[in-house]
Design goal:
Elements lengths: L2 E6 L5 E9 L2 E7 L4 H15 L1 H12 L8 H9 L11 H11 L3 H4 L9 H12 L12 H20 L26 H8 L4 H13 L3 H4 L7 E2 L6 E4 L2 E6 L2 E5 L8 E4 L2 H5 L22 H16 L17 H12 L4 H8 L4 H8 L6 H12 L3 H10 L1
Antiparallel strand pairs: 1-2, 2-3, 4-5, 5-8, 6-7
């Protein structure tokens, strides 16, 4: 714990002292000059969040620095300001997201002059951030989240290099923990049937469509009746648009995630029976009760979450599924069904709209039927004669 208290010197000057403990010993730092109160509270916050040793190192760096370079906080504000022209080609929503991301490293590094940030500072922040609890669910901050936030910090420091404010980028090639990737939850047809029993009638067709096509949420909820071609053999849906966040809670229709996400997905007659009554070509197939887009967050909390909870409750179902799938796991489930049925991975890639086959292989390659048996057979053929000769050596 660190405490901040004002003291008046015999000369009448008010100073601020931060009292704290380090290695079992009581310590204090005194702050004077303009902005002393703010500096004292910032130092106390650093102690609370990162420990006395790290806070003192940051303090010494600030006090010993004499250049006119802005702080990392000020430079980050400039970098993310649309008017600065330093960061172009992104949406308003992305710029807002970057400001949120910056809040992960600015509390620790923001008040350092941008040319005083060292590799040790970046490493200390990475180690701290990797140890923080996950924002959602259990466990630590996801490795992907740490990687994405580190990438923004690195981009900002690279911009400082380009601006002539420092000679190098201390975040470049920083070692990050690989962490644990959240595995997809794969449902059986019985699992899905159980969940569907607890989905309100209005939304059952959407859940069936997600599981039956592998479409992303933003793609499925953007499908219009004009995108459906129901008289072909087989019927198909054309994925041309997806909902995109634009900032300040707003969304708009835009292109899907990548160029390969523009695709045609085949349907089958039974899925057509689940669709709601046909509307005009420009109407959304799946709509909220009041009309318009179905919001993912509200659907997850009010529809999907309660249905999954009920599907796991032995008082509500005779066969609890024993799984906690997210909505996105319907996409994983669809892929797993395709692979179990023998669909080649390039076909799965095209149907899901993956930009790269490596994404498909990395996510679903372990599900390919007979892969383990084939690999074991190849290994056995390669090792023929090794074990008999080894046993002969042991008994000889």
């Amino acid at each position: 714990m660190a405490s901040v208290k004002p003291y008046r010197n015999p000369s009448g000057e008010t100073v601020y002292r931060v009292q704290f403990r380090e290695a079992g010993r009581s310590r204090q730092e005194t702050f004077r000059d303009p902005g002393a109160e703010k500096a004292a509270h910032e130092f106390a916050n650093l102690i609370e969040r990162f420990g006395a040793k790290a806070a003192q190192e940051v303090l010494e760096r600030r006090r010993g620095h004499t250049s006119d370079a802005p702080t990392l906080r000020k430079f980050t504000e400039r970098y993310l300001d649309e008017g600065s022209g330093m960061l172009t080609g992104i949406t308003i929503r992305t710029r807002i997201d970057y400001r949120r991301v910056a809040k992960s490293f600015l509390p620790m590094l923001g008040d350092l002059p941008v040319d005083a940030v060292s590799k040790a500072d970046v490493g200390r922040w990475v180690a701290w951030y990797e140890s923080q609890p996950a924002r959602y669910g259990t466990g630590r901050t996801a490795a992907k989240t740490v990687k994405n936030h580190h990438a923004l910090l690195s981009a900002i420091l690279s911009a400082a290099v380009a601006d002539g404010l420092r000679p190098d980028n201390p975040a470049h090639a920083a070692k990050l923990s690989k962490g644990l990737r959240r595995e997809g939850v794969f449902l059986t047809s019985d699992d899905l049937e159980t969940i569907l029993r607890f989905i309100p009638d209005r939304y059952r067709a959407l859940v069936v469509f997600l599981a039956g096509t592998g479409c992303r949420w933003g793609e499925a909820t953007a499908v219009t009746w004009g995108d459906l071609h129901l008289t072909g053999d087989p019927p198909t849906v054309r994925i041309e648009r997806a909902w995109k966040r634009t900032g300040h809670g707003a969304v708009e229709l835009g292109p899907p995630k990548s160029s390969r996400s523009r695709r045609t997905v085949s349907l089958w007659p039974e899925i057509l029976d689940a669709l709601p009554p046909r509307g005009k070509a420009s109407d959304l197939v799946f709509q909220a009760p009041q009309g318009g887009m179905i919001w993912h967050g509200r659907f997850a909390s009010e529809v999907w979450g309660p249905a999954v909870t009920a599907a796991n409750d032995p008082e509500q179902t005779a066969a609890p599924i024993g799984k906690r799938p997210r909505i996105h796991d319907l996409r994983h489930t669809h892929a797993s069904w395709l692979i179990a049925g023998g669909a080649p991975l390039p076909y799965v890639q095209a149907r899901l709209g993956h930009e790269s086959i490596q994404t498909t292989v990395g996510t679903y390659g372990h599900l390919v039927p007979d892969a383990h048996r084939d690999l074991a057979r190849i290994a056995a053929q390669s090792m023929q004669g090794v074990l008999p000769s080894q046993r002969a050596l042991e008994t000889g």
